[in-house]
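Exam prep: given the inputs below (a chain plus coenzyme A), describe the expected output before reading on.
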Amino acid sequence: MNTYLEDYTQSLQDTEKFWLQEAEKIDWFERPERGLVQHENGLFTWFDGGKMNTSYLALDYQVENGRADQQALIYDSPVTQTQYSLTYRQLRDKVAHFAGGLKKLGLRKGDTAIIYMPMVPEAAVAILACARLGVIHSVVFGGFAAHELAIRIDDAEPKVLLTASGGIEVSRKVRYEPIVEAALEEANHKVNTVVMLERPHIPLEQKNQNYISWKEVSECPEAATYEILDATDPLYILYTSGTTGKPKGIVRDNGGHAVALKYSMKTIYGVDPGDVYWAASDIGWVVGHSYIIYGPLIQGCTSIMFEGKPIKTPDPSTFWRIMSQYKVKSFFTAPTAFRAIRKEDPTGSFKAAYPTPELRYIFLAGERCDVSTLNWLRELTQVPVLDHWWQTESGWPMMANMAGYGLFPIKEGSAGKRVPSFDIRILDEEGNEVPHGEEGSVAIKYPLPPSCLPTLWKNDQRFKDSYLSRYPGYYLAGDGGYRDEEGYFYITGRIDDVINVAGHRLSTSEMEEVVASHWGVAECAVIGVANSLKGQIPVAFVVLKEGTSISSEDLEKELILMVRNTVGAVASFKRVSVAKRLPKTRSGKILRKIMRYIADGKSFNMPSTIEDPVVLDEIRENMHINKIGIAFDPTGL
Ligand code: COA
Ligand code: AMP
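Solution:
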């Protein structure tokens, strides 16, 4: 095997050759003739001419190549006290029959389907069945409210909505039925068919007669075979928060995605076919797509689907129990999960009952990993704890400490080095590279490697405007960061209005829209403030309309409810502060970034464009009085 440096260099010198070689490692029905092709619209696709099917690679190929009786998916659900597994053959058969049922409902290649499901194996079956037929799936995270589901329905225009009676949050039952009904009512696009899984723990209350039962679809007597798809056919759309209230529909292709994931399983995560891999995330996020479902199965691993939380289900030992019980080799989650465990079990005493001799690596992503948590985890588990960086847009890591090449020495606070084929640079305002050690904007030479979004769903222009226009020739990642002399990169946080709350990517603009719609609010700013457990939490600063009489407590309660009902509980929106004025530039732009710096106790240069610097003192005092910001966070980050 080549060294990291050899592969990194080759991947930039002859990118197409590098990836065509990697493409040999998956089973094509017809091999691609080309690596990268530029189209009339200026955008690129990977592996044109290649014919394949991702669901085939994840299931049938494994069954036909000696893995039929190996566990493909282990379901561990402490919230329902359920544990069982499906072999590759069992999973393939379930998927084929479910796909047969979807076909009977009239679904065909190129149609779209929304999947709004909790962490149950049926969700994996639905995802893989769509992929089998070439039906483009779009999974919506269960923690989003009806409005978020509705805007995704309107953008994706699905023929069918696959859903369940609900999810379980520790012990709270979250009924999906009213959310689904409200979303269908709100959406302009009319969904023909709703397929409903009634979970034994959450019986349906309404039993809408129009729902098709999950059983009817899954027990379809005809098993559908896989469609022969083009490598460039979309596999899925995954909506992610951008800087406006309207989420961006990230498109994932079939071919580039499969090739990149296959490459990543060994080179980044260090796992071989037959190994047990666990990503403790949710199918609603990109990590769930890539590393609960597609990546591990394409690699012939055993993947774990966990329905629970790192704590309280039932206690902070859950992660250790699962790693020990199923002999997990490589593990992946967001740092916040370990901060939660550490908070409840600072000495790590719950680990003692669960030896994990098979565990080789722990990977963290989704937000910056604070050094203290990283060290705590490393000492407790005695395995390398590896921070790595990626986005929904890429679908796989772009910076990492790559296990398959032999690890580099770990540098605390760094997300690793550039993954081969990602030509990442740190740029200043003018688009020039900054010297090593200096902070700037993280940008990647365009065109991007396989699996990265070819475009946004039905919106090439927004793709170009959001990512390609800021620095010609580069993709704008939206993060700030720097690199050191030895090629290690450090991510310092978003440079836009996107925040990361407990590893969940959210838009403050979306929350602002909701807050601004309150009858008493004249103007507002929602900012992400550093938090020792969740990384960041949203805080709203509101200026009331003249003559409004509402107590701060009532206003806070009303706004919390509004955001919860519109965006969803996952926003963790719990703090509102009434301000006299908001700091602005002379042209009226609210200085949210400066407000964030004040809350996080960071120094900043006074912007020359500020309208009235005194407002910053007022906001500082407001934060002090209302105990907002890192100075009031008991442990700090
Ligand atoms: N369906 C419905 N509601 C959900 C939900 C879902 N799938 N996921 C979260 N929520 C709700 C929670 O119940 C909570 O509601 P509450 O305000 O009534 O308590 C709210 O959304 C916030 O959830 P969360 O941010 O998960 O906070 P928490 O306090 O319940 O748990 C952690 C904190 C750290 C344990 C949890 O966030 C966690 O495990 N994070 C790891 C995140 C992760 O895996 N990210 C994926 C990227 S790798
Ligand atoms: P998502 O698209 O939900 O995966 O979120 C992507 C964003 O999460 C990135 O743009 C970063 O802001 C943040 N992120 C992901 N991984 C890391 C990391 N290792 N360190 C710091 N931030 C990260």
